[in-house]
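tool_call: predict_structure(chain=1)
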Amino acid sequence: VMSILLHGDAAFAGQGVVYETFHLSDLPSYTTNGTIHVVVNNQIGFTTDPRMARSSPYPTDVARVVNAPIFHVNADDPEAVMYVCNVAAEWRNTFNKDVVVDLVCYRRRGHNEMDEPMFTQPLMYKQIHKQVPVLKKYADKLIADGTVTLQEFEEEIAKYDRICEEAYTRSKDNKILHIKHWLDSPWPGFFNVDGEPKSMSCPPTGISEELLTHIGNVASSVPVEDFKIHSGLSRILKARSEMTKNRVVDWALAEYMAFGSVLKEGIHVRLSGQDVERGTF
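tool_result:
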């Protein structure tokens, strides 16, 4: 499995989660063995100029904290983009480290239907209106090279338009939204045929007192014989043993019993987070 994350340029530079996940990228329990980050860099964040949005020259500079290679590529050159993406995939598979592809491009229209970009970016949009669209630019090159004929190109465009039109026509006949078709992994038994959630009923999850006592005793004992334990810890273990004997639980012991009962069923439990190793909480 190769993870690919798609970012906008302003989001890549501006969202803390990007910096945080880069720092998780090589931690033993969290790594995906390299993520490919594709930044669609249209050089404008909604209506904000880059110079008003960040202090670094490139939106991708945040990736330098983990020395990830960053490829800046002209998105008007599809073959260069393909080449760079192949190099990125090869880098990731060879070194199992993150890599960034910065697609330097532009946004032909506004951020949304309500946005008129000429208000805030008049000079940039004068340039953009003169730009030949990438599809036409590339088609002209292929036709000039003799790689495809004009007729083949037009047939390809017509074929694609037809696919879109047919899908649009079919969409008008859909009266029911099948939610479960949109889930990555539809949970069996969670939705009925029409995609509606079934009534939520939970099987009983209780366990016998005998098992709880067993878990409590194990959780308050030291697994190794003749092991000199810190006096502060032995106090905690002693208190836990007393609680188990007196049929009393606090949050920590209740959590131990929950984890213990799951482990007893052969289900792997992984703890992560603040001070887990020390058991502070």
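agent: Residues 209-265 form one domain. Proceeding to next step.
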